[in-house]
Please model this.
Amino acid sequence: MNEYILEEIKPLRLKDSVKNAQEIFNNYPITHFPVIENNKLLGSFAEDDIQTIENKDGELVSYAHLLNSFFADEKATVLELLKIFADNDTNIIPILNEDKDYLGYFDLRDILDVFSTSPFMIEESETLIIEKLRNDYAMSEITQIVESNGGKLLGLYISEKSSEFVQITLKIISDEINEIMHTFRRYDYKIISMHENDIYLEDLKNRSEYLQKYLEM
Model:
């Protein structure tokens, strides 16, 4: 990921003026920008905070209480970065090395490009959403169910969680998706996603239609 670390905009320092910071936000489509001292990150100012300051000649040090504290390690994964972007409602993340020195920043657009071109996103596959009691599922069991039916699991993540249930989204390469769904049901997983060729649902639909016709006789 290091090839995506940007240094296009030089980081701010506390002795810089508010006017200088406002000009940066006016010239670049960014929500935050980092402030450093001796190559150490102090935090990031948000555009919404900086643009409301009227004393343009004042130094940023007077507004240090507005600094936001978030950053990522240079070895962070794409999913970790996406979480930091979302948690902080930002499109810029300062990047630090293992010595906590400032290296530059990641731009959200670059990280989304990396994610969108990953095999998880571009491989032709089935998306399967399953649900089970949150204390009654296991990632190892899910993987075993997919692979025992000849499927290949590209990835999975918890897409929804409540106090009782979790929903898990799976990306699967398989010619036997019905067999996989059937096995999940045998293990008491509920299939949340809809699939055109779901034999189980087709059977329920046929039984329902038959019953309806019987009741109308």
About this structure: Residues 72 and 80 are 8 Å apart (CA to CA).
